[in-house]
Structures are given as C-alpha cells and as structure tokens.
Amino acid sequence: MAHPGTAQPSMALLSSATTRSISPENPTGAPGAGGGATEGTGAACARDLGRGWKVSPSIEIPAGTRTDIAAVDGPGVIQHIWITTHPRHWRELVLRMHWDGDPEPAVEVPLGDFFGQGWGEFAQLSSQVVAVNPHGGFNCYWQMPFRAGARITLENLGAEPAVVYFQVTYAEQPVTEETGYLHAQWRRDNPLPKGSTHTLVDGVTGRGHYVGTYLAWGVNSTGWWGEGEVKFYLDDDSELPTICGTGTEDYFGGAWNFDVPGTGYTSFTTPYLGLHQILRPDGLYRSQQRFGMYRWHLPDPIRFERALRVDVQALGWRSGRRYLQLQDDIASVAWFYLDRTSTHRPATPDVDELEIC
C-alpha cells in the first residue's frame, strides 16, 4: 500500500491484495455472496423478478439507533466509500469509524460534514479525496488502513427513520509498520464567543500528519468575514504556532475576499482546495451568508512528532480599517493520520448542537 499522502503505484502494477465490497446487497463482503437477499427495501419492487434483482439496495436506520454498515477483520485498507441519503439526514446521522477493535472512534463526524455538505444543501465538490455529485452522491477516497479490523457505524440522532444506500470497498492486504490511522473530528461554535478562536483540533498526542480541513461558516455580521489566520501548533508550541497563515481565504487557496470584481463571491472546486458552496439570503427564512470550503494537505501534509493543536481566528472589518472580532456560526472537520487508533476528541454532539439554524 502506498503511504497516505504519497503517489499511488502504477495502475498496471499487479498485487496480491484481495478486493472486497460491503453493501446492503452483500453486508459481509464475502466472496460470492452479493445480491442474494430475499428480503429488503427493494423486495416489493422485485416481486415479479425474485432473488438477485435489487432486493436489498438500502437499509433503514430507525430514529435513535446506531447501525453497523461495515465490519471487517484485518489487515486491510478501506479505499472508497459511496453513500447517499435524504439531505434532511445529513446533519442527523453521525458517522463513526473504529480501528483494530478500539471502542473509542477515530472518526466521529456528522455524515454531511464528512463530505463537505454541512449546510444540508447539495454543493458540487470535485476533489482528489472527496467527490459529491448530483444529487447527494457522497464519495470519499481517504485511505483508511487497519491491522486487526475496522468497524463503521451510523447513528441516527433524528426523529425520523433514515433510508441509507452505501458501498464500502476495501482491500485485504498487509499494512506496513509506518502507516498511520485516519482520524476525523467535528467541532462547532454557534456563535463563537467574542474574542475566542474556533478550535479545529486540540489535545491530540502522538506522531502523525494533518491532511484536511473543511469549514461550514455562517456569517452573523455585514462586510468581509475572512481576515482570520489559520494556525498550527506543533509539538512543543505554546503561545505561538509554528505555522501561521495570512488569512482565511488565503489558506483555502483564494485571494482578495474570494471576490471577482463585478461578480462578488465566486465558488470554485479543485483537486486540493475550494470554496464550493455559497448560500445567500433568500429574502424570506434564510439567515445571512453561509459558506463551505475545504483544503486537503495531501501534497503538503503538516507533520508533528508529539502533539497537535489547530485553530482559526474569526475576523472582519470595522470603521477606521480596524479588525472586528466576529461571533459567527463555525463548524469544522479536521482530518489527520496518527500512530494510534484513538486520541482526545470533543464530546459527542446532540441533535440540537448539530441543527442548522
């Protein structure tokens, strides 16, 4: 397996790895076991056709329950996840991933936010590791290695059952000693307390590298909102960080307020960074402007040996060209690889904390 963050091997290079795929049509991923269901969410549609004709294309997750969508014995690497459900569930379903039997999840993120869709509305995202296509086809290609096993779950925190379609493709293969485990954490400040910074990662210990950021940013003031710097505190950093950017739009690869003269805020989606979502007030119920943006540190991972902390300032402008400390609605997902299966993470949010409001 290529080390996460490095170039993939030649597509012509043969391997001893075995490909398996888990879906409602093959819930164990076992060889020769796909499409054999006699009951499922498509049984009524296939009543004239019978077994093998899309009898079980999806699962229903009742309100207030947690369901395994994949359980795999290792070693191996999850290579691709495709999943879809109704947009109203994107912030109500919590995605978790556990590695090597660890009861603590390495990944604990609302489903929509994990795929850059934190506002519950579709936005095309075309990147190296995450692709979201019409209408809500979620795809990710994060490499997810494990040594003893992997478990992926969805918990429905909402008040209604959720119908979910999915496919998890993985390779059964050895995992090298230097390979890290994928982690992802979600946080939200709504609103951000005045004078505070929004924390993306805090209290992470171990050796690893940071590989991705997604922000769902809701603006609660007039004017430009992205003067704040993104800061990475590595290892022994305390008051000052080792890596400090020059502004929010700069970190996400844009410039000058994402403002194309005569057009205003302009969305873009590229392999490694983008401002892929811009939601403007609608003159009725929608609040002020909301944005979705991502940056994948795949060619440029941020490496640390012992500890990691990451935050972003929320700054706008006030009279006299002075900075204004903002109190915005900011949610984030941070992805990193680590030499251990779990680390410090924020408390699990409840449905009210997740609600888009």
Plain-language structure description:
This protein has 357 residues and is mainly beta. The chain has a single domain, classed as Jelly Rolls (Sandwich), CATH 2.60.120.1390. The strands form 5 sheets. Strands 3, 5, 6, 11, 13, 15, 20, 21, 22, 23 and 27 form an 11-stranded mixed beta sheet that branches. The longest helix is centred in the N-terminal third of the chain and has 4 residues. The protein is globular. The model has no long low-confidence stretch (mean pLDDT 96). This is DUF2961 family protein.
Offer a concise description of the structure:
This protein is mainly beta. 3% of the residues lie in helices and 42% in strands.
Mean pLDDT: 96
Strand share of the residues? 35-45%
Share of helical residues: under 10%
| Strand segment tally | 27
Radius of gyration: 21 Å
Q: From the 3D structure, determine the CATH topology.
A: Jelly Rolls
Write out the CATH superfamily name: Protein of unknown function DUF2961
Describe the main β-sheet briefly: 11 strands, mixed
Q: Looking at the chains present, what oligomeric state does this protein adopt? A: single chain
The rounded distance between the terminal residues' Cα atoms is: 43 Å
The CATH architecture would be Sandwich
